[in-house]
Design goal:
This protein is α/β, with parallel strands linked by helices. The protein folds into three domains: 69 residues, SH3 type barrels (Roll), CATH 2.30.30.140; 158 residues, Rossmann fold (3-Layer(aba) Sandwich), CATH 3.40.50; 59 residues, Ribonucleotide Reductase Protein R1, domain 1, CATH 1.10.40. 34% of the residues lie in helices and 21% in strands. Helix 2 packs across helix 6. About 3% of the residues have low confidence. This is Small ribosomal subunit biogenesis GTPase RsgA.
Length: 346
């Protein structure tokens, strides 16, 4: 069991509360363990923010930026159960998920003005944010370069029903206060390279702590100036997690998040004649009728179907992997049993 005094503790500024305290007290960490929050993860080492400052520790189990942990003698002795987990399908194509940040309250989905592929990426990131249990907020960056701001904001609002949309320019300062007001609790910035995440993060932090880079004029893409996920305290309260640009945004175990991101499609589906309507050629399909009447963009409907198929495929891969692991374990059990029987017969 660990011991921790809340008197003059800085941990509440990182999100520590009585619930985390109770989880820590019920853990099996050794006496004298120190609570802290993972600020950065490197190979074989994690940086943890504690009451005594930033300490380095060796992880005994997998940790992610945002995790609350208990450190003992330079080792992460326990990782407290996560409240929320922002994850995507691994970029390698493996069936495991890649955790982007843990215990997140707000996801700032950044998209640069002028991006030609913004809508599809926004829908994916919003689905992942809803699935995590956090609240997504759409942030249109670089609005000082936008000729049709109202039109672009309206387009984003249609791509994410029920999600707050904020325009911001870190250069002029317009919209920074609105983003700061939307950044509640633990906030993570996600989006493609060149979206201006680090520039926006510096504006929210009130200082140039993070490196920023130029965007290539030929394709409007940026370099990965942020190469690690980093958790930093915000001057207005809460903490901010900056992340490297995401080239691939795969979904995995995100059915509920997809349905919430496409609430307009799901609401229409409830009016189909058949409860198991596949929205193909069934009579009385409310979704198809809305598409034919231009009440629902065909692109959006196809995006929903694509994400659901991708999520189901990822689930099937996971099931196949688990089945393979079970077969391997039983083969090993059988092998061990035969070896014991042979040993007894000698």
């Amino acid at each position: 069991m660990f011991s921790h005094s809340t008197h003059d503790s800085v941990l509440p500024t990182y999100g520590w509360d009585s619930s985390w305290e109770q989880l820590a007290l019920s853990s099996d960490a050794p006496a004298g363990s120190v609570p802290g929050r993972v600020a950065r993860v490197d190979r074989g080492r994690v940086d943890v923010l504690t009451d005594t400052g930033r300490v380095h520790a060796a992880p005994r189990s997998a940790c992610a930026v945002g995790d609350w942990v208990l450190v003992h003698d330079g080792v992460v002795a326990a990782v407290l159960p996560r409240r929320t987990t922002l994850a995507r399908a691994a970029a390698s194509g493996r069936s495991e998920a890649q955790v982007l940040a843990a215990n997140v309250d707000t996801v700032l989905v950044t998209v640069p003005a002028g991006s030609t592929s913004r809508v599809g990426r926004v829908e994916r990131l919003v689905a992942l944010a809803w699935e995590s249990g956090a609240t997504p907020v759409l942030v249109l960056t670089k609005i000082d370069r936008c000729d049709d701001l109202a039109g672009v904001l309206a387009e984003l609002a249609l791509a994410a029903p029920g999600v707050e949309v904020v325009g911001v320019s870190a250069v002029t300062g317009e919209g920074v206060d609105a983003v700061a007001g939307a950044a509640q609790g633990t906030t993570v910035l996600v989006g493609p390279s060149g979206a201006g995440k680090s520039t926006l993060a510096n504006a929210l932090l009130g200082t140039d702590l993070l490196a920023v880079g130029a965007v290539r004029a030929v394709d409007d893409k940026g370099r990965h100036t942020t190469v690690h996920r980093e958790l930093l305290p915000l001057p207005t309260g809460g903490v901010l997690v900056d992340t490297p640009g995401l080239r691939a945004v795969g979904v995995r175990d995100a059915a509920e998040g997809i349905d919430r991101a496409f609430a307009d499609v799901v609401d229409l589906a409830e009016h189909c004649r058949f409860a198991d309507c596949a929205h193909e050629h069934e009579p009385g399909c409310a979704v198809r009728a809305a598409v034919d009447a231009d009440e629902l963009p065909g692109r959006r409907f196809e995006a929903y179907r694509k994400l659901r198929r991708e999520d189901e495929w990822a689930a099937a891969r996971t099931d196949a992997r688990l089945a393979s692991e079970r077969r391997a374990r039983w083969k090993q059990v059988t092998k061990d049993q035969r070896a014991r029987y042979r040993a007894r017969g000698r």
